[in-house]
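step: validate -> pass
step: tokenize input -> pass
step: predict -> running
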Amino acid sequence: MDHLSDVLTAISHPTRRAIIGQLAKGPARFSDVAAPFDTALNAVTKHLKLLERAGLIERRKQGREVFISFRPEPLREVAGWVKDYERFWTQHLDRFERYFADKNEKKAKGK
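step: predict -> pass
step: emit ->
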């Protein structure tokens, strides 16, 4: 799988997006990341592994504690991909708008 697919897969699940939202506020210990979720710790671990594979989080060991941090850089790749399609639709919708504006103008002139 390519990197963009890894990132899109990682952000496709609401729990993983919630984890990203939580970590965007600052690094947290695993237990703090898992606390808000009513799910098994094993499930949270699987979510974190997917986020880590996509490069959206990193782990840092400090003494006996493991801190997890958010890495926003991979989201730029997603934003660039979405922006290409935004440009595509903007151009097509602008042409559509001009077509109807011309059609209405001709209708108003009685042509």
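step: describe -> The chain is about 65% helix and 15% strand.
step: cleanup -> pass
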